[in-house]
Amino acid sequence: xxxxxxxxxxxxxxxxxxxxxxxxxxxxxxxxxxxxxxxxxxxxxxxxxxxxxxxxxxxxxxxxxxxxxxxxxxxxxxxxxxxxxxxxxxxxxxxxxxxxxxxxxxxxxxxxxxxxxxxxxxxxxxxxxxxxxxxxxxxxxxxxxxxxxxxxxxxxxxxxxxxxxxxxxxxxxxxxxxxxxxxxxxxxxxxxxxxxxxxxxxxxxxxxxxxxxxxxxxxxxxxxxxxxxxxxxxxxxxxxxxxxxxxxxxxxxxxxxxxxxxxxxxxxxxxxxxxxxxxxxxxxxxxxxxxxxxxxxxxxxxxxxxxxxxxxxxxxxxxxxxxxxxxxxxxxxxxxxxxxxxxx
Length: 344
Known about the structure:
The chain is of the alpha/beta class. Helix content is 45%, strand content 17%. Helix 1 packs parallel to helix 2, helix 8 runs antiparallel to helix 9 and helix 8 packs parallel to helix 11 (291-301).
């Protein structure tokens, strides 16, 4: 029987996710007991999600399913999903990722420390869930806790960040105290940005926000299933680059150390090689790719004055199409090895 006051609510907003959400639920529900509830909020799916969920709720008493009339977008749907939660903590989770065995028990142990947000690690997998590698979050890759209201602790947290996951970008790796979530708000300026939850957390920094990087792999992320790529690679880059630049400037100021480290992390995620690839895509698929937008995103990414930035912008402008085609097979072959060496 479900506890009326569970310790953790796993919150899963979905839209047309029938192909994957069953595997996600299987990985979670096999670990739950009376301390855990699972909520799926469906933003008006047009596939078989509702039929699938109707069958699941008959079998699992710890699972609740809610359905909206229409899709509100990830920002609104995630907030709606958390609004149904009863747990002390909410584990935000994507409907196409897979939770690792034992992850729930580890989470229950960690939340006893009483922090506001916990960030776990995950692997990157193929669409068929074949594991490729662990995704970096912080360096050094070890447990670290900070109260972001404290300037010194906040700067150290930002300095340790290696990817935007240290700044809450990946929802499946986040467990947040429900009371803390409720004390924030979804700002209108970021309500359709895909980063509404990040804006909520950044807005809470001044009022004390205790965050903890646990440094343990708790889930596997399904790759090659990015619904935001349907409008092209350049637009997907725009969501990440523009979104985090806006967040940095809005909540910390463009010239702050915090904003600098957010921009630094963006450069870790959007490399020169990825921009050159996008440039080639603009040539290949001009009907969906926007070269002018890409040029602007490159300038934005390398807006900080540095020799490395000048060199990157210069290389982006002059790198020839034919050379990219010639070296791309070699690059793809050595990329996994280089990633392991880089993050060792």
